Each structure stands twice: as C-alpha cells, then as structure tokens.
C-alpha cells in the first residue's frame, strides 16, 4: 500500500476478542465475521490497488442493530467504516486494521412505492437498477444510472453522490434523493427530508449526499422516480479527431440542447467495448459520441436534425441513429460495459474521475495524451462528455516493478490538470483515499478546516471512516470545537498522517 492511513490503535486491537463478543450479542447468528479468510472479500472496494483486512465485519439487518453497533463503538472509542456493495472506485470503504467494517448488504428491501407522490422508499442495500426495475411496470424509472448500477447500492450512491449517463439532463444523486433515515455515531436515529420535494430549514440532505460515510450511516432512503419519456433515440457519431468530438459537445450544449445523455469514448475504449459487446461501433474513428435525445416524438425528431447538422459542422465522419429500443440499448451497452471491456486488454487499470468545464475538453485530452507519453503507460478515455466528467482508464501491470507507482503519478497529474483548467477533483467517485492527498490542490487550509468543522458537528471523536477525504486529520478541539465526555477530552493522542 502506497498511501498512509491512521496508525492502528494497539489498545483497541488488544480488546478484539471482547469487541467481537459484544458485536455478536448485538447482531446474532451469522451477522459477525471475524475469521481472517472469511474477511478477505472485504479487504478492498473497487479500487483494488489498496487492500487492508478489517479488524472485524458486522452485518446488521435492522436500524436498531445499526444504532446499537454505533453506540457501542462510540462508547468504546472504536473506529467504524460503513460499506455498501463495495463498488467504490476511490477507496471510500477501504477498511481499517483497528476498525469495525459495518456492511449494509442485508438492507435490501424496498419499503414503499408511492406512485402518487412519485417516490420510492428503500433500504440502502438495494441496488440502483433494482429501483427502476421495481417501478418499470408503471412506466417509471430512477434517473441516475452509474455504469455499475446492476451492483452498486443506493446507499453507496448517496455516499459518493454518484452520477451516470443520464445525469446530464436529470441530475446527480443529490438531485434525486429527497430524504433519509440516518444513524449518528452516538446511536441516535434521525430523519432528514421525506416525500415532499421541499423541506424547511437547512439543506441537510445536501450535506449527507456525498459525505462518504464521514457523518452517519444511512438506513433508509427516499428517492424521486420519473415517468419514462414518450420517445428516446440515440445517435452514434464518429469523428476523425478527438478534439472535433469535444467541439461538437460544446456546440450542442451552446445551442441550448440538453440531451438525456451524451458520452464520449476514444479509439482504445471503442475497440475494447466493441470486442466485448459487439454493439456495432465504427472502428475507423478516433472518437465516438453517443447522444440520446428524449421527450415527445415530434421534439425528438427535430432535435435529431439539429444535432446531426452540428455534428457535420464539426467534421463528423459517421452517424447512425437508433430506430428501435433494442438498437438504442445496444448503443449504450458498449458504453456501460467500457470498464470491464478495458479490463480484458490490460492486467490492471486505474479509473480516474475528474471534472472540467466542457469548453476545456480539447485541452484536457491533449494533456492526457502528453502525460501518457511521459509515463509510458496507455490510457483509454471514457467521458460523461455533456457535463465534463472525465474517466481516463490508465493501463498498467501491477506485476511489473514501478508500473503502479507510475500509474498513480499519472492519475494525480490528470487530476491536477482538471483543477488547473477550472474543474474539480471528482465528479462522482468521491475523494476516499485516492484523491485525499490532492485536496490541497483545490482547497486552501482554511477551506479544509471549515469542512472538518462540519465533520466535528456530527462526529466529534472522529470515529466514522477516518483516514478518508482529509489529508490532515485534526482534533476537533484544534478546529475550535472542544468535545468533553466524562470530564475527559476524547483521543488526546489522535494520530496524524
């Protein structure tokens, strides 16, 4: 592991047997896993370059059990790492050697489908795609659709503020979640928001969404569902130059056209996806745009003509328009499978996640190309082009000495480039451990301290998911919030990294 994490608390590790016994009393049966071999599936998340077995895994299946586990850990000074399906690509659910890994995989029930209010109330372990499948019979769906939607959990989507192909028009997770049930580290259960689209007071859902498990554990979610559009058709447009495709994206948005989704792939990604899915992608182009237009049929027909004209003006070399739902889904199948497809052509890859202004896309692509030559590593580019969210896939072989280090340095330079171009470090994968030490590239010390004060308001002892997001771990007392319990200041020897 090339990253530093908080030093394990040897006193906590010395009490491991007692901790396991206490957790078994709260979550009986098969709810606690403590054997090393059985904990191996939990040693990493989707960022498999970093691995760390947890001290113990606990798998509650009720809010009351979550509350009791957190209350026990709070009283005993034990760190807790919440985990959904483990598909995070930033190390957000990387375990701690002296921490309890709190898995929400058993929370997989949909509690209420309310078509009148157009909401679904679900537990956090339900997969993203399962929500759309549960309401499809009535012509509804849940809009945010990460590529991992068949596996990623809605609770994890909240933790990372996940996006997806259709977030350009319909918003990220934060725009589609209305409320949640949240368990604080003290064990207190609170409710935030609900079925109403408007709530009084502060926007606490805006704080919880994207908080990466640092503030509390979500045990229930209320999401907005939408009616399926009357018509949805996709265009598959090829370009001889990647920069021309980037210019086309900017012109479409500049013309006031907001597609349901607009994605880009470069040549290595196109070839990998086509070999994997056989979607009919053109193989003689340098870049491919997939543009979906939806709405009333007459509107979609008009928008297709306008988009075709814009693409031709940017020098497009091919254009294919879907004529059926099967064909539209096939266009998207390759894009949705781009990540596993690239896994077939490289032993390992790092999936980066940064966001830039759309107009800066040509500069970003040129910089990535230069960096690829500098580090001697290949890269396949897959973009949420419409909102400037880049996903360069850096190809390397972890078995070759030095290649992983070069891949990490390559990725860090891509993210620095995003910030330099006026963008941000992450679009939807979160900060986790992957981007933690790059936070000062975007935020000043004052900014970071202010963010940590918010963390302290929810978790004064710093027990929830420590070692993530913040490059320097402060005591809350240092940030102006002193928390005294039983006449003693919590964690006087809190480690720094």
TrEMBL record:
<dbReference type="InterPro" id="IPR016166">
    <property type="entry name" value="FAD-bd_PCMH"/>
</dbReference>
<dbReference type="InterPro" id="IPR016171">
    <property type="entry name" value="Vanillyl_alc_oxidase_C-sub2"/>
</dbReference>
<dbReference type="Pfam" id="PF01565">
    <property type="entry name" value="FAD_binding_4"/>
</dbReference>
<feature type="domain" description="FAD-binding PCMH-type">
    <location>
        <begin position="50"/>
        <end position="228"/>
    </location>
</feature>
<dbReference type="Pfam" id="PF02913">
    <property type="entry name" value="FAD-oxidase_C"/>
</dbReference>
<dbReference type="InterPro" id="IPR016169">
    <property type="entry name" value="FAD-bd_PCMH_sub2"/>
</dbReference>
<keyword id="KW-0274">FAD</keyword>
<dbReference type="InterPro" id="IPR004113">
    <property type="entry name" value="FAD-bd_oxidored_4_C"/>
</dbReference>
<dbReference type="GO" id="GO:0016491">
    <property type="term" value="F:oxidoreductase activity"/>
</dbReference>
<keyword id="KW-0560">Oxidoreductase</keyword>
<dbReference type="InterPro" id="IPR016164">
    <property type="entry name" value="FAD-linked_Oxase-like_C"/>
</dbReference>
<keyword id="KW-0285">Flavoprotein</keyword>
<dbReference type="InterPro" id="IPR006094">
    <property type="entry name" value="Oxid_FAD_bind_N"/>
</dbReference>
<dbReference type="InterPro" id="IPR051914">
    <property type="entry name" value="FAD-linked_OxidoTrans_Type4"/>
</dbReference>
<protein>
    <submittedName>
        <fullName>Glycolate oxidase</fullName>
    </submittedName>
</protein>
<dbReference type="GO" id="GO:0071949">
    <property type="term" value="F:FAD binding"/>
</dbReference>
<dbReference type="InterPro" id="IPR036318">
    <property type="entry name" value="FAD-bd_PCMH-like_sf"/>
</dbReference>
